[in-house]
TrEMBL record:
This is ISL3 family transposase. It comes from the Bacteria. It comes from Spongiibacter nanhainus. Residues 151-383 form the Transposase IS204/IS1001/IS1096/IS1165 DDE domain. Transmembrane segments: none annotated. PANTHER family: TRANSPOSASE FOR INSERTION SEQUENCE ELEMENT IS1557.
Length: 397
């Protein structure tokens, strides 16, 4: 590459003159004559020349504009015509690929269309068109991905008109695999049937949703269903607080007591634990349920156990669930029994849907920055651009 090409970033150019007025105006022409692109012959003559004006890049606060003298060649061998092509500049485009990529990365990083239209001297519609072009390229590459081995499934709210959407997360690589509108089996059926490599999914992590469990059993037949630890603990606390409301409605309104009841027993100070036991002494049934809840939470928080250790813990856990079936927490016990296998599977894995919930927070920020989305496909492309495709496309097998 020539010295001029190294400065501009485009090979094969010969700089004729440079003028600085409001921006940087560079006049250039090809430095070499290429072979015929049809027959690779060397016998070429210049039939005519025309000029192309290309926005190339920004140096400081000034836009570098290229004025290229483009020859039209006539091959003496095959008698065909063609125009000179430049690396990094597409035919009939008014901006180089470097300039378009610069605008895309700036807009992807949060710079508004209005700001880019002022700094890069293009319209907001052009910013959106270039952004959609680069996203479309990523989408065409990303559509060939295989399902991740460790998959997280969860729902999040999209709009009041369209309802909820389902997030499929790659928990091993901390990426969003895809986002699809709907959360029922009929709305996701066509998409799930077309997934490549769904037979190779090993683990599916989800909350205690019967819909998602039936989807996992049908479309990921070789996967182990693992319950999400956060949702199980939250379910236990919700049922306990509901029973507390029935025994002492006034105490249930005390914010200090609510904080103590929700915490794990081993995270309470000596004084806090003494105050809580003093309150529960007046409600023997509630005190017994509180102690059972603490034992239950300890079981739920187990993880990275070997198969042998998990089998040793299972009888005590089942016995505790059976005791709760004869208590006011019988509804909780029925739910835990129906989800017994996914909950026990939690003991052997560390992954949870906390990764997916974190992506949901990021999706909400994307939607806020855009002042909401009406078109779900535009929303999906933005989410995958920010949370999913970077570093994942090259893993296509």
């Amino acid at each position: 590459m020539s010295h001029a090409g190294m400065i501009i970033g485009l090979p094969g150019l010969e700089i004729e003159r440079v003028v600085r007025i409001q921006g940087i105006e560079v006049w250039a022409k090809p430095s070499i004559r290429p072979p015929c692109k049809h027959c690779q012959g060397a016998g070429l003559r210049i039939k005519a020349t025309y000029q192309r004006t290309i926005k190339h890049t920004r140096q400081g606060n000034q836009i570098l504009t290229l004025h290229l003298r483009v020859p039209k060649y006539h091959c003496q061998g095959c008698r065909r015509y063609f125009r000179h092509s430049f690396v990094g500049i597409r035919p009939r485009y008014r901006a180089s690929e470097a300039y378009r990529l610069e605008v895309f990365e700036a807009h992807d990083g949060g710079v508004t269309q209005r700001k880019l239209s002022l700094t890069h001297r293009i319209s907001p519609a052009t910013v959106e068109r270039w952004y959609q072009h680069h996203i479309g390229q990523k989408r065409s590459e990303g559509d060939r991905r295989y399902c991740p081995r460790v998959l997280g499934i969860d729902e999040h709210f999209f709009t009041r008109k369209s309802g909820y959407a389902t997030t499929f997360a790659d928990l091993r690589n901390h990426k969003v695999f895809d986002v699809k509108l709907g959360r029922s089996e009929p709305s996701l059926r066509r998409y799930l049937r077309g997934l490549q490599g769904r037979e190779q999914v090993q683990v599916v992590v989800m909350d205690l949703s019967e819909t998602y469990r039936s989807i996992a059993r049908r479309y990921f037949p070789n996967a182990t269903i693992v319950a999400d630890r956060f949702h199980v603990v939250r379910l236990i606390n919700q049922h306990f607080l509901k029973v507390w409301q029935q025994h002492d409605p006034e105490g249930r309104k005390n914010r200090g007591l609510i904080s103590l009841m929700r915490r794990h027993k081993w995270r309470l100070g000596d004084e806090q634990h003494a105050n809580l036991m003093r309150y529960l002494a007046d409600y023997p049934v509630l005190q017994a349920l509180y102690l059972a809840k603490q034992r239950l939470v300890r079981f739920v928080l187990l993880k990275t156990l070997t198969r042998k250790k998990a089998e040793a813990r299972l009888p005590a856990f089942v016995a505790l669930v059976e005791q709760l079936e004869a208590s006011p927490l019988h509804a909780l016990a029925r739910t835990l029994r129906s989800w017994l296998q996914p909950i026990v599977a939690m003991w052997r894995f560390t992954k949870s849907n906390g990764i997916t919930e974190g992506f949901h927070n990021k999706m909400e920020m994307i939607s806020r920055r855009a002042y909401g989305f009406r078109n779900f496909e535009n929303y999906r492309l933005r989410v995958l651009a920010h949370c999913g495709w970077d570093g994942v496309i090259n893993r296509v097998r």
